[in-house]
Design a protein that fits this description.
single chain, 425 residues, alpha/beta, Rossmann fold, Immunoglobulin-like, 2 domains, 7-stranded mixed sheet, 9 helices, globular, disordered N terminus, Bact_Polysacc_Export_ATP-bd, ABC-type transporter activity
């Protein structure tokens, strides 16, 4: 796996480059105040008041896409993905850098953009085709394929406003993917339509991957789709390309970015005399962090350390709960007094958890320190919690294994139900 910001070395690719993005910057001007007249505008100008601030959305973005690539662009919300697509599509222009492509480019950035509800489905197909740059004769040649894929033949002469939302989505998506372009740009459109239509889309993309002349650029938050369809991918973070190359490295890094809790001013740092949530003067430090890779297979054993600083208490215990952040609930809990700690002070505890029984998912390990009064008569009395890890200092990891399912928590290797018999009543 590559380090952040380091390009992955690729084998020489002799296929022609159909899209080149070279050192592209994009800046938006956000208004901060508005002059109410010419006099105020002149005063602002003399004082050097611009009336806007600049927001750098993309900075020094460079990559190439070859003919026949199924190329993924991923990143968290606000990273600059959609802005990049609009630059490629010619909707925006960069402040610096150059974007060039070869062939017919078909952008499909938002479902249904350019559709008119007062026109029929048939008229909207021709309208959308014209907006994409196709002539009427070219749309004539594509029309039957579009209608067949959308499965809307008997509805094409009805007005679009009478379509259900699902029918509109199917028609819009069919126009995009059946348009006879050389480069197809898709932005967050894989989860469209019902289950049967999604299976049809899946079959279509499987066939597209086999076509050496068809190039697809896909923006998605679905890392399963990136690993399944894409040949290469880039990860954008804060307007920069941080990984360019291997799709699995990109998908795994994206998963880690999403596992990280959002920064909280009250959680991560000590402020004045206040301690982060879950800590105190008695326990100023408690955190769990990964030792092995945070993206694992079910055959792996996930290793992590727990670091704590507690000098005041003796008779310390540690409890660990594994939260299932995707499905909700607690997948496992050690109990409040199972793990007895040997020493106080500043210590590090080495831990591991086998993953063979779990399906794919994202998990958070929450640790608490607990005490039992040594002088207490009842040795079975419950322990008392004195510290716990908040979202910022808990340990997160993900399981990604092709053998696993996505829905249930336990894998088929971890639990199987056997039919013991059947009888008629």
């Amino acid at each position: 796996m590559s380090k952040a910001g380091e390009p992955i070395r690729q084998k020489k690719d002799d296929r022609p480059v159909v899209l080149s993005v070279e050192h592209v910057d994009k800046v938006f001007r956000l208004p901060t105040e508005q002059a109410t007249g010419l006099k105020q505008a002149f005063i602002n100008w003399t004082r050097g008041i611009k009336g806007y601030k600049e927001q750098q959305v993309l900075q020094d973005v460079s990559f190439q896409v070859h003919r026949g690539d199924f190329f993924g662009i991923v990143g968290r919300n606000g990273s600059g993905k959609s802005t990049l697509l609009k630059l490629i599509s010619g909707i925006y222009y960069p402040e610096r850098g150059r974007i060039s492509y070869t062939g017919k480019l078909v952008p499909f950035i938002e479902l249904g953009v350019g559709f008119n509800p007062e026109l029929t489905g048939r008229e909207n197909v021709y309208l959308n085709g014209a907006l994409l740059g196709f002539t009427r004769s070219e749309v004539d040649a594509m029309y039957d394929d579009i209608v067949d894929f959308a499965e809307l033949g008997e509805f094409m002469d009805q007005k679009l406003k009478n379509y259900s939302s699902g029918m509109q989505v199917r028609l819009a998506f069919s126009v995009a993917i059946k348009a006879q372009g050389d480069i197809l740009i898709l932005d967050e459109v894989l989860a469209v339509g019902d289950e049967a239509f999604q299976r049809k889309c899946d079959d279509y993309f499987t066939e597209v991957k086999k076509d050496p002349n068809k190039t697809v650029i896909l923006v998605t938050h679905d890392m399963g789709a990136v690993k399944k369809y894409c040949d290469r991918a880039i990860l954008i973070k804060d307007g920069h390309v941080v990984i360019n190359g291997d799709k699995d490295d990109v998908a795994n890094r994206y998963t880690l970015e999403n596992l990280k809790a959002p920064d909280k001013q009250s959680d991560g740092k000590k402020q004045g005399d206040e301690y982060p949530t879950g800590l105190s003067a008695q326990v100023p430090l408690l955190r769990a962090y990964p030792v092995s890779s945070s993206v694992c297979k079910s055959s792996d054993t996930f290793r992590f350390d727990v670091e704590y600083d507690c000098a005041e208490y003796d008779n310390l215990y540690m409890a660990i709960a594994m939260h299932d952040t995707r499905r909700g609930g607690i997948a496992y809990d050690t109990g409040s007094d199972v793990i007895r700690l040997k020493a106080c002070g500043h210590q590090v505890v080495h831990c591991s958890v086998p993953l063979n029984i779990f399906n794919n998912g994202e998990f958070r390990l929450v640790v608490s320190l607990r005490v039992r009064d040594a002088a207490q008569a009842d040795k079975n009395a419950p322990t008392k919690m004195i510290a716990f890890t908040n979202d910022e200092n808990s340990c997160v990891f993900a399981i990604r294994d092709k053998r696993n399912r996505e829905y249930a928590l336990l894998s088929d290797r971890g639990l199987q139900i056997s039919l013991l018999g059947e009888e008629s009543l």
